[in-house]
Amino acid sequence: MSLKLKPATLADYKARLLRVLVHIQQHLDEPLGIDELARIACFSSFHFHHVFTGMMGESLKEHVRRLRLERAATHLKLGSRPVTEVALDAGFESHEAFTRAFKSSYGLPPTKYRSQRSTMLEPRARSGIHFRTSFTPRNFRTSQSGAKSMNVQIKTLEPMRVAFIRHVGPYGEVGPTWDKLTTQLGRDGWLAGKIMMLGICHDDPDVTPQQKIRYDACVTVDAQFQPSGEIGVQTVAGGSYAMTTHFGPYNKLGETYSALLGQWLPRSGRELRKAPCFEVYLNAPDGTEPEDLITDIYAPLQS
After folding, report:
1. Which of 25, 30, 134, 213 is the most exposed place for a label (fewest CB within 10 A)?
2. pLDDT for residue 3
3. Which residue from 25, 39, 59, 31 is spatially nearest to 261, judged by alpha carbons?
4. pLDDT score of 295
């Protein structure tokens, strides 16, 4: 007898994320690795950051940085420690960097903030979550704008065999990898007929250092293709996917990912499975204006 899984709800997603928010506030002085936070929330580390960003309205990095600044503001108002010590506790390497960040968030430098007798200020946070010395779980606000405007289709795909070259480094520098792949495949006659050009994104640039980001430039091939040189072969998993279309520059793809995984998904009754998302490029960047680029984004769903 098989058990029918209860559909995931927005309340489920928020409860799981609240566990992460509590953990962050209790461990602000620690590294807060993405794998650990994803495990606490019972999300795949492949997708956790986009879920977090879409639901919270800020990236994980921005959230932690804001909380550390809010804690620093509390220390400035209620304590007498030197500003340099407060800056180091907030994770800044210099007094100057801390002053710039603090002024950007609070509108005035930390020394002036400390000297004013006004009540403590808090930077704006869409979620309503702020630093508290004794933080306890509570509800938070999440935007629905992305979920309401997105056109999402559920598609069932067959496994796809692809020839690929892996690029390691910033996503904005994948052009030469694509040139190398398509030049070789074109010379050998593999770009004729009905093919798809895919990008498999293994890492999030807001989490992974730029020099370690992994991206696979892929072209679909049949069983006759054999890997050679730098070109390898892999299979993109089949199954159920949520697909939405991104219109515009590639450097804005992250916003669509966050809206899909952090706003549409929690209201969809679906869960992600442990596999990377991928992109299908419907037109080429050469000769196409950035605002006219069209990209389908596929997010893997549990059955």
Report:
1. 134
2. 34
3. 59
4. 98
Count Cβ atoms below 10 Å from residue 251 Cβ, excluding itself: 11
The pLDDT value recorded for residue 42 is 92
Taking residues 253-281, report their average pLDDT. Answer: 94
Split at pLDDT 50, 70, 90, the class of 145 is low
Q: Which two tokens stand for residue 160?
A: 């796809």
DSSP single-letter state for residue 264: I
Q: Give the three-class secondary structure for 205.
A: coil
Token code pair at residue 117: 């007798």
Q: Which pLDDT value is given to residue 147?
A: 62
Domains contained in the chain, CATH given: 10-144 (1.10.10.60), 149-300 (3.20.80.10)
Residue type, 8: A
For residue 272, list its beta bridge partners: 301
Give the CA distances from residue 238 to residues 56, 143, 197, 277, in Å, rounded to whole numbers and listed in that order. 30, 31, 16, 12
Count of beta carbons in the 10 Å neighbourhood of residue 116:
11
Among residues 100, 87, 91, 93, the alpha carbon closest in space to that of 24 is found at 91
pLDDT score, position 124: 84
Tell me the HSE value of 225 on the side-chain side, using a 13 A CA sphere: 24
| 268 token code pair | 């969809």
| Average pLDDT, rounded, for the chain | 90
Mapping DSSP to helix (H, G, I), strand (E, B) and coil, where does residue 185 land?
helix
Rounded to whole angstroms, how far apart are CA atoms 186 and 285? 17
Q: Over 90: is that where the pLDDT of 208 sits?
A: no
CA dihedral sign of residues 286, 209, 96, 56: positive
**Cβ-based neighbours of 26, under 8 Å, separated by 6 or more:** 135
Q: Is residue 155 within a helix (H) or strand (E), and if so which, with residue range?
A: strand 153-157
- pTM, rounded to two decimals: 0.86
Of 188, 185, 162, the closest CA to residue 279 belongs to 162
